[in-house]
Write a structure and sequence with these properties.
Elements: H1 3-22, E1 39-45, E2 49-50, E3 55-64, E4 68-76, E5 81-88, E6 93-100, E7 109-118, E8 123-125, E9 129-133, E10 139-145, E11 156-175, E12 182-183, E13 188-201, E14 208-217, E15 225-227, E16 231-235
Parallel strand pairs: 2-9
Antiparallel strand pairs: 1-3, 3-6, 4-5, 4-7, 7-8, 7-9, 10-11, 11-12, 11-13, 11-14, 14-15, 14-16
Length: 236
């Protein structure tokens, strides 16, 4: 045994002897059993609505406990709670900022909560909060045609410009030669918050009026399509 250890043991006995002398032969010990879970007094988010893609939202909760250990943040987008992050407490706050960058979340109602654990394995959770990812239909901002009265055999270029708060997925050209709107050809994929969808209409072997429109689709839940105003050109 080293001299330092001997000295430390002697110091402990000396302290105990002093305590016994000062308390008429009795030494009192106080044992604290921590069976109380952390409590939160502030909880929420800085917004309740996400209006467009790549918008950020900050979540926060403030806790009280004399031995906070770590916190967990979870949210539910698909019907199952998903553990997003786990971090040690530095202060009494649990803070997290997330960017909503998934276009498939458009139209979702997302619930979220924090969990907190102290160093004695006591747990608590906040109530569930919610935010809404706003759904908007794609919007045709511009429509144009290269010729109002094309001659038979002259192709007509049909153009449309679309916007959406999350994503315009694709656009179909629809025509109405028989009284029923039908897709004319393959769709144009945009896969962005804005973009052009351009089509070419073949007038070969045709005469008379032709009505057309374009229908844009996003990737959100139903309904997810929107039709443009109807346009017309006359083949001569």
């Amino acid at each position: 045994m080293t001299a330092k250890k001997i000295f430390a043991i002697m110091a402990i006995f000396a302290a105990m002897a002093s305590a016994v002398a000062q308390t008429n032969g009795f030494v009192y010990f106080r044992i604290i059993i921590d069976n109380k879970a952390p409590k939160y007094n502030v909880f929420g988010a800085n917004t309740s609505t996400i209006k467009e893609i790549n918008e950020s939202i900050k979540f926060f909760a403030n806790w009280s406990d004399f031995s906070l250990d770590y916190w967990i943040f979870e949210w539910d987008i698909t019907g199952v709670e998903e553990n997003i992050t786990q971090e040690s407490f530095i202060t009494s706050w649990s803070n997290l900022t997330k960017t909503i960058d998934n276009s498939s979340w458009e139209g979702m109602i997302v619930s979220f909560k924090f969990y907190a654990k102290d160093e004695h394995n006591n747990w608590n959770a906040t109530d569930a909060g919610q935010f809404i990812v706003v759904k908007k239909l794609p919007v045709p901002e511009e429509l144009s045609q290269s010729d109002d009265t094309p001659q038979n055999g002259t192709p007509v270029n049909l153009s449309s410009y679309w916007t959406d708060n999350f994503e315009v997925a694709y656009v179909y050209l629809q025509t109405n030669e028989t009284g029923v709107w039908t897709n004319n050809g393959s769709p144009v994929c945009i896969n962005d918050v804005a973009g052009w969808a351009n089509f070419t209409y073949d007038t070969t072997g045709q005469l008379g009026d032709r009505w057309w429109r374009v229908v844009g689709y996003d990737v959100g839940g139903s309904p997810n399509d929107n039709a443009s105003p109807i346009m017309k050109f006359t083949i001569i």
